[in-house]
Amino acid sequence: MDQTDRRILSELQKNGRLSSQALAERVGLSATPCWRRVRRLVKNGVIARYVAILDPERVGLHVTAYAQVSLEDHHPDSVAEFDRMVKDLPEILECHAMSGQHDYQLKVACESIGAYDQLLSNHILRVKAVHTVNTSFVLRTNKSTTELPLGLVSFPIQ
Fold first, then answer.
1. pLDDT of 69-121, one tens digit each?
2. Mind listing the domains of the chain with CATH numbers?
3. Which end of the chain lies in a sparser environment, N or C, as judged by fewer CB atoms within 10 Å?
């Protein structure tokens, strides 16, 4: 991956709907070589997928919560049960296994505090291995981006 690939990725992070021609113009290539590079980046998994990023408030998801979850034990069956629960719940947007005091951090989007309480009571706390859940609710978002800081990466990238 070279500097041109990085420019392509940067432009696509800003607008994934750019036409091949528009993208090529922005990065200083003709359309065909630019398209080949994008196809290679997709094939190599650098571009994982294309999505539409929605505004949660405008689709009725008014509550964003971060839940720190600690498990009683880390037996493979317990972890598998927790992982299944996470994968089955669309309200859980992200799940990260963490170092530190808690085992997992979940990012959750819900319609209301009541809906979060139902999710917690009816699903998360029903997993036998869940010991504690500490929840923080987002009051205001000062920054939210999906753009990775490619300018901080030294090249070449494998």
1. 999 999 999 999 999 999 999 999 999 999 999 999 999 999 999 999 999 99
2. 3-52 (1.10.10.10), 57-137 (3.30.70.920)
3. C
